Amino acid sequence: MSILPQHKYYLTRSSCHDLWHRNRVICSATTLTPKPKFRPNQPATEPQLVKPPNLVTPVSIPPVLNDPSLQSTWSHRSWVATGCVTVLVPLAKAVVGAAHSHIWLEPMLAGYIGFILADLGSGIYHWGIDNYGDKSTPVFGNQIEAFQGHHKWPWTITRRQFANNLHALARAVAFVALPIDLACNDPVINAFVGVCSGCIMFSQQFHAWAHGTKSKLPPLVVALQDAGLLVSRSQHAAHHREPYNSNYCIVSGVWNEFLDKNKFFEALEMALFFKLGVRPRSWSEPSTDWIEEIESTSQDAFH
Ligand SMILES: [Zn+2]
Ligand SMILES: [Zn+2]
């Protein structure tokens, strides 16, 4: 028996948007029956093409013009507003506490450590949802699905509205940091929590800017990217290229080189594999689920 795999792409014309979309065909297989042995007094039969079961499954389709999945809802905006309050309260408390105690160095240092650790945290979180679980995973399912879609169609992040892009992390920040805000009056801890949670919450905006075009980004953003205070466009572009397992950090990207050089995530993946038997998605590379599709004609309609 021989199986002939055929990986195909084909174009279909969308009826509702009158735009061309590329749909992906996972796989189809043509199975040949084995050639029967010739026996006397038996009519010879030709090998027959056996029609395979229908394995043609169009997978998710890229978001289109005015796609609701890219737009902010009032729920998204409420969570982002709550997240902003959660970030601003400890920052204000840190400034007031520092002014009262005349101690500025420690809170500033704590804020700086918060900024550095937020980048590491963003990398670990990004690596986790890129490599493990799926859309049915409790709590993280939506984020996992969104990041898988992002690898397929990276440009969509630049079309995603602000609150739509930030609401999931804003919600996490509100749940984790708000109790600390209320319980703590130490300016050092407040400075750390305010800066760290703020950078985590806005990491998706920094990520979106890393996908921007230099000429279209605000000059201040470009300056911060060039200074290494925000993740650079070139560094993040490497995350979207083979072997698809580097440059996970998306706040400043300051950790990326160190983590990748020392194979930090590869070591974590091995540890998880030997302990729990789970394989990260990046080991199946190059997988069609991660390979970026070229921006289709439909996306040009956004401009
Ligand atoms: Zn990723
Ligand atoms: Zn990206």
TrEMBL record:
GO terms for biological process: fatty acid metabolic process. It comes from the Eukaryota. InterPro entries: Chloroplast_FAD_CarF, Lipid_desat. Pfam families: Lipid_desat. It is a multi-pass membrane protein. Residues 116-283 form the Lipid desaturase domain. GO terms for cellular component: membrane. Keywords: Membrane, Transmembrane, Transmembrane helix. It is found in: Membrane. The keyword Protein biosynthesis does not apply. Belongs to the fatty acid desaturase CarF family. This is Lipid desaturase domain-containing protein. It comes from Salix dunnii.
